Amino acid sequence: MSKNINPDWLPFLNPEFEKPYFKSLWRFVEVEYNTTVCYPPKSDIFNAFNSCAFDDLKVVILGQDPYHGPGQANGLCFSVADGIMHPPSLKNIFKEIQSDLGTDYPVSGNLERWAKQGVLLLNPTLTVREHEAGSHQKQGWETFTDRVISQISAEKENVVFLLWGGFAKKKSKLIDTQKHYVLTSGHPSPLSANRGYWFGNKHFSETNSLLVQNKFSEIAW
Known about the structure:
Helices cover about 35% and strands about 10% of the residues. It has about 220 residues and is α/β, with parallel strands linked by helices. It has a four-stranded parallel beta sheet with strand order 3-2-5-6. A two-stranded antiparallel ribbon has the order 1-4.
């Protein structure tokens, strides 16, 4: 299970792996992956933790479920594998970056380049059944990822949390806002963005300003 997790996460995650709720969750995941098509690929379930080392972490972006279409999910929230068409939410994220920072629209939707710079791209539910959004919710993943958020809050300082949409905003209760920064807006999905709740939030320039203020390097979004 831990082979695709950066080792510096293991002191925080190994205790969770031993708890009854997680053992029950993993039994469920094993059965699902053995009997039906699920995403992301099993080797990428913990990709968020493999791609962003705990020591390097300085920004957290929360999603919800992995993408549930073929070839899309790669274990990083909002991210898709190279060569895959950009889903609507990711398109709106890139459009906001274009507007906010004056950069070109990216060719690749693979956000591993962000993760390598210290951005944890975390889906609160790490797996999903094909074409069934929410199908792996309430099995234990939320308990696990809530614990991750709480541990980051406790162990780190001056992390920028980007909480987009109602689901992500509820996680603010897990974050010590005396130590960290929490930026909120509507979700980048078309439904929210087209109602004016996403575009113009300037979260990417604001995040970089906060990082520089705390003597961290900017993210090359």
